[in-house]
Amino acid sequence: MTGGSFSRVGVVGLGTMGAGIAEVLARGGLAVVGVEIDQGALDRGRGHLERSTGRAVKRGKLTEDAQREILGRVALSTDFADLGDCDLVIEAVPERLDLKRTVFAQLDRVCRDDAVLATNTSSLSVTDIAVTTGRPTKIVGVHFFNPAPVMKLVEIIGTVLTEPGAAARVADLVKGLGKTPVTIGDRAGFVANRLLFGYLNQAAGMLESGHATRDDIDAAMKTGAGLPMGPFTLMDLIGLDTCLEVLDAIYAESRDRRHAASPVLRELVTAGLLGRKTGRGFYAHDNSSGDEEKAAGAAPVVGIVGVGPLADAIAALCDRAGSEVRDSAAGLAGCDLIVEAAEGAEAARALLSAAVQAAKPGTVIAVTSVDGSVIEQAMATGRPSDVVGLHLPDPAAGTLAEIATTVATDPDIADRAVGLVARLGLGVVRCRDRAGFIVDALRFPYLNDAAAMLGAGYADADSIDAAMTLGCGYPTGPIADLDRLGPDRAVTVLRALHAETREPALAPAPLLVEHVTAGKPLR
Ligand code: CAA
Fold this sequence. Notes:
Strand content: 5-15%
Helix content: 40-55%
CATH architecture of the largest domain: 3-Layer(aba) Sandwich
Bound molecules: acetoacetyl-coenzyme A
Oligomer: single chain
């Protein structure tokens, strides 16, 4: 038994999250009482438990005997009275305050006075729930992540009313279950959702505005930023109704337009297209999609103009792909693709106009500015129809290239650019000429939010990084990312994004600017 001071735990609501939580508790050896509203919902809950543990049996991770034991520890009921002898009850019903308050009123009546009552709310105020009970000192938030059996993070939320012992006991329980608790105060979205949902909603906004396609945005974030899933795949996993509820709740507190749910999300929810659980959301779940474009064909001849780390990185990619690289004016004439990789806008412009003179018509000219100024460089060449933007979000990894087209780019040149860059062995995604293209436009505002959260003292660097790595499977946390990518680069990209959108929350967080000025990493 791994429950510390808890031995019998109730779970109210056996949807995706509640069933996952019940499974985690039962796997930890605890006696679990699962309660649902009616027999139909209870049967669906049993189905979730059987499927999830059955999948582990199929993969050889669990024996059939162990599965039987786990399922045998979960008593299922439609009667709240069966929760009467639990030491802890975790509520996981849909995210409606009125519904949660009704459930807590019932729990208050049937549970022992010393029982701790927890809510798995994603974003509602735990305090709002606590004040309507007769035991506000014993109310905590215990926020698991989807899929609960897999994700290691659990946010433990204590309100100003919670007795410290209650939150600490729940944190001990969570540790005993092999998860990592992060204990924080009661703010909308807590740590992980507050950082995650601005990003998810911005991705939906990108789709809405036609900046890039669903598949390209997903591929960009998966391949270019190393995330386990792209934003649309993840929203479909979370459930679009939940996404909408979380965004509405965060917006109500933040009043930050970036949390005002994108219309496409609201439309899908109204249409009942809620993601994986209904078979369709941003994706139809019988289709496989989301992979970046790849192309076969001979390695292109690439001209590189300019010197510096970017030029070196592109030359290394060409080398890996067996592409011939040319950098003399005479050599540029026979290139399929010419990449400007100069350091600084003035140098880029001068080198580019010389290169364009040398290039034969129809050669793809790629410029590497990522601040929404591809069109300016394109116009300066005198051949704007041949020009695209090229950005490697992680040049060292050499996995993904973003190709931005302007209103002046010839569609055939855009297609050729995609094909040629793909032949360098890179995944390729397309977007319009806007600051940050896809990856930087999505990751730097998220990193800025993390710096702002750190600056505001809501959570420390370890908790913020743990929230994103253990809660959302990110390879590294945002504070570590800022130090890796460079606070100075973050400030530069954020200033470009802010200049383009005038979105107040995109102005670099004061803490970030301070670290740049001090020349000191965040950690
Ligand atoms: N239930 C149980 N186990 C599952 C599972 C599920 N639904 N889905 C995957 N798994 C397990 C698999 O059994 C597998 O384990 P083993 O290797 O031990 O067999 C492991 O997870 C990996 O699964 P897959 O190989 O099938 O797939 P994957 O490598 O693509 O990983 C993933 C799937 C773990 C979900 C991964 O893509 C990931 O981490 N995605 C990010 C998920 C995320 O961000 N979650 C948080 C959402 S926000 C939230 O939940 C908070 C909120 O309030 C809304």
